[in-house]
Amino acid sequence: MRRKLVVGNWKMHGSLEQNQALLTQMMADLNGLRDADCAICVPHPYLAQAQQLLKGSNIGWGGQNVSPFQSGAYTGAVSARMLADFGCTYAIIGHSERRVLIHESNVTAAASFGAALQAGLTPIFCVGETLEERQAGVTEAVVGSQLIAILNTLGLDILSKAVQLRAVIAYEPVWAIGTGKTATPDQAQAVHAFIRKRIAERDPDIARRVRILYGGSVKPSNAAQLFVMPDIDGGLIGRCSLVANEFRDICLAAAESACVASQSISD
Asked: Which residue among 101, 115, 150, 198 has the highest number of C-beta atoms inside a 10 angstrom radius?
């Protein structure tokens, strides 16, 4: 059974003072979390603070983006090796906001995915469709093209490296990010099942093992219904990761759903 994972994405929020209070509260709230994994991806200037505060806790930390390049004349870019220097476990790759605002392509995102793996990080590779694409009925075509870019850019051998470092896929319907709209559990499950099926076409074992997170306006009121879906293995959380008790409740919902699934198997 895949272990649930909840990852907070702070986006461009935070300050040293706010972060201190928020992370301290999260550590207290989640100290007893045993049946799910959790992590926070912070803006790059706060990686040292996250490392200092979270080291030794059960909360992992990571960055929000990775350059496809290891080093060089790329002003403003951050390499995977730099994230590793700060003890990061995770790196968000190909988030829709970067695809839209920074014009990152499928090829760039795939190259960044490979760079993260090369540095020993666990990439969280984001895929998802816009509202217009969903209404046009091309969700699977869009998500499929984003996934296949990894193999087209990096080759089939990248799959073994990806599973070794527990690479994660995050399905984020663009129309549900920051809008308050959420895919219904059945809508989200359908896309998650498609993603797993598409991976299974290349390697069934990897498809069974890879964790696929849902990332479209997850909140305490809908987390439990989403996390009990068979192919939803947790969440990539935006706004609610900035509120300690809301993030705690989502993590607890993930842990509870894992207990429910375990009980169902034993029965």
From this structure: 150
